Amino acid sequence: MFNTCDLRVGRIVACKVCEGSDKLYIEKVDLGEEAPRDIGSGVRQYCTMEDMMNGEFCLVFANLKPRPLKVAGIDSHGMVMFASNADRTAMEPARPPPGSKLGERLSLSDGSIPNFSQDAQKQLNPKKKHMEALLPLMKSNDKNEACYNGIPLKTSGGTVTVKSLANCMIS
Strand ranges (DSSP E) for the chain? Predict the structure, then answer.
């Protein structure tokens, strides 16, 4: 499952409150592509604008089918990944470390999936439920490392982490 899902290093370059929504931010996320992507994140009650726009890298699920955000009048072209506690009263972004490369594809620290599927560049077919299969296996461990099925995620700069939410879901 991991080798078909395109998890990449991004950076939020613009963020605004979505008028008409209590939860949504609309971000422009740079993945090293021709233009930044519009992505909507329902995290306003947990993350400040300063947290979103602090210049650090973020983790992006990049090959999801665009999702219309009717309240914003745009399509969301991916998902910025956040750790959340069990009762969803706290959320914080998963952060690739300094030294990572913008647009870089994440890998597993144990090298257990050495070859990524060619389909990873393609938009996922939502009928195949790739996202629904991946997300239950995305969690932070007791060292605050972002993991897939217990294996830490890494970039060329090191391991992806969350600030303080250990042993929590990442979605």
Answer: 7-17, 25-30, 37-41, 57-61, 67-69, 74-76, 79-80, 82-84, 91-93, 107-108, 138-140, 146-148, 151-155, 158-159, 169-170
Range of the domain at 83: 2-113+124-170
Cα first-last separation, the chain: 15
Number of structural domains (the chain) is 1
pLDDT digits (tens, 9 = 90+) for 118-165: 555 566 656 667 678 888 999 999 999 999 999 999 999 999 999 999
Give the CATH number of the domain where residue 75 resides: 2.40.50.140
The verdict on residue 43 lying in a domain is: yes
Whole-prediction pTM: 0.90
Whole-number Cα distances in Å, 86 to 83, 90, 102, 150? 10, 9, 30, 17
